[in-house]
Amino acid sequence: MKALKITGIVLAVIIAVVLILGVIAPKNFEVSRSLVVNAPQDVVFKNISTFEQFNKWNPWNKLDPNQTVKEEGVDGTVGAKHSWKGNKDVGEGSMTLTKVEPNKGVEYALDFLKPFEAHNTAYMTMEAVEGGQKVTWGMKGSMPFPMNAMGLFMNMDKQIGKDFDEGLATLKTMSESGASASASTYEVKEVDWAEKNYLTTTRQTVKYQDMGNFFGTNFGAMSKAIAGAGATPGVPSGIYYKYDEANMNADMVAAIPYEGKKVSSKGFNNLTLPTGKAYLIEYWGDYGKMKPAYDAMHAKLKELGSENPKLVVEEYVTDPMNETDTAKWNTKIYFFADSKTQ
What we know:
By secondary structure, the chain is an alpha+beta fold. The protein is 27% helix and 37% strand. The protein has helices spanning 2-24, 41-49, 51-57, 156-176, 211-228, 291-303, and strands at residues 28-37, 68-72, 81-85, 92-101, 105-114, 118-129, 132-142, 188-193, 196-200, 204-207, 232-233, 237-244, 249-259, 269-273, 276-284, 311-316, 330-336. The strands form 2 sheets. Strands 8, 9, 10, 11, 12, 13, 14, 15, 16 and 17 form a 10-stranded antiparallel beta sheet that branches. A 7-stranded antiparallel beta sheet has the order 1-7-6-5-4-3-2, covered by helices on one side. The chain is elongated and about 70 Å long.
């Protein structure tokens, strides 16, 4: 009985100490590390803003090469999600992009499920400094009372900071060696554009993350209308009048060219793009990873003395419903620096 009483007193003291420490211990934390990367701004931003590149320098990936990963959404845009499930060293969790500021930084929700549950905010920022781009990688969050008392006994800055240092060092090496895809990868060809008649949606602003649904909803209906009119449909396309990288959206239409009979369908419009000069880039890969191809486009426009294209047409040659390997998806990107296309 006496032993039970002593045990009860000891437990009460321990609980009291934990509660007291919980009152005085900070509930919020933030850990960050910075490093200057001597590489082009666009290369550095791609390497920190897309999961495709992040996974190449992520210091935790090597802890379990056999971990299961899943990618969702359009990489590099708000809503894109990277999930993992691995051994005891990497646990289970996900990262979801919640903020993307081109050439400035990204922020994402970092949710751990195993070996413990935690929900924090992580971020990466970049700014131009002497010698390159100063990249800062950080994480912030809170620990509820009385669990925050643990913060007095473990140095989170030291534990996480060393991983951040390691990852940033790999990012620096990768970026400075040009490991990210660049505009020089893509050949720009001058071509003669033949006149095409299109059935299109109404011109509207569409968010990058919604384009999959936008095309999926309209291409089927337009194809049916073209076939119903007895015309021959061509390659489903996106026609872009203007795209806004800062707000991640585009002023555009979904379009399908057709030949033969005239097509008229309620809810859709007719558009003719006349003969003219165009520039063509052949792109192979995921639709969400076209930035290097567009960098090549802008490099050509700069060479021509122009800032922006008059019009961009993307022809989606490969049907994703019939080909699951994204590396085999072919998109022909035409851009025009000719007033004839306006």
